[in-house]
Amino acid sequence: MSAPPVDVIDRLRALGLRATPEALRSLLESSTRDRASPTQVCERLVELEHRARDATNLDRRTRVATLGTLCPLDRFDWNHPRSIDKPLYERLLTLDFLQHGHNVLLRGQSGVGKTMLAQNLGLTALQQGYTVRFTTLAGALADLLKQESLPALDRRLRRYLQPDLLILDELGYLPCDSRSGDLLYNIISQRHEKRATVITTNLSFKQWGTVFPGAACVAALVDRFVQHCHVLDIDADSWRQKHAGHDPQPTPPAPTRKRAKSA
Fold first, then answer.
1. pTM
2. Quick one: the chain helix, strand, coil %, rounded to 5?
């Protein structure tokens, strides 16, 4: 059986098909071998292109999410914490909270796995076709504070307002000023009841004021965040300190490629 003419594959690619030349060649060869009808060939071509576009969409959203390297969820030691609501986290993995624009707070001292659990929520959301952005709170605020004009600030705010899921890591680890508090309030209030936000912290809600001394908006910030919020408290000693020198090596996220909604 002769191979498909190269110019046919080139023409399909010129029309904007994202499937690779190798995948197109394989499809045409198998369709010829199977004596597929024109309709069957078109159906196979459409399915191939859907998969290629889904893969491209997922790759792009994964880059934008900036999840970084993470440990797979199966490496989380659920027996280490003295107390943790595992059923709640398993419900969060269904992403029902995201569909309703609810928030999540992961709270516990340093080294108990808050970031790992937050990253895996983000990874699950990516796999299901949602847009995600992961950042430390300090990094997000520094990014916003360096904008030199209000129009520039408004444009940069979209980076944190538009994702379906925003993950702000490490609230309370670095002190912030009142302007930073105003910026966080702006983000939380504009996402309120529209898009989901996950925050990790080592502080109780009543201690958030110590992070933003002098900021009058802290009470309103907490009020909006907690109105629809799932709180997962982790009572544990630092896993990293306990296993110093024995931590499993983190691995880059390798999301399962599923049909993704357009972002």
1. 0.79
2. 50, 10, 35
Q: Strands 196-201 and 103-107: what pairing?
A: parallel
- Cα distance between residue 172 and residue 106, in whole Å: 13
Angle between helices 137-145 and 178-191 (to 10 degrees): 100
**CB 183 within 8 Å of CB 145:** yes
Residue 185 forms beta bridges with which residues?
none
Rounded CA-CA distance 161/170 in Å is 19
- Binning pLDDT at 50, 70 and 90, where does residue 261 land? very low
The reported pLDDT for the residue numbered 131 is 96
82: tokens are 């003295």
Least confident of 8-12, 93-97, 241-245: 241-245
For residues 3-27, average pLDDT: 86
Which of these, 231, 211, 230, lies nearest to 221 by C-alpha position? 211
The answer to whether the beta carbons of residues 235 and 83 sit under 8 Å apart is yes
Alpha-carbon distance 121 to 101, whole Å? 14
Sort strands 103-107 and 229-233 into parallel, antiparallel or unpaired.
parallel
Dist. CA 214–CA 98, nearest whole Å: 32
Residues whose CB falls within 8 Å of the CB of residue 101, separated by 6 or more in sequence, listed in order: 191, 192, 193, 194, 195, 196, 228
Q: What is d(CA 22, CA 165) in angstroms, rounded to the nearest whole number?
A: 35
pLDDT > 70? residue 6:
no
CB 202 within 8 A of CB 169: no
> What is the structure's pLDDT at 229?
98
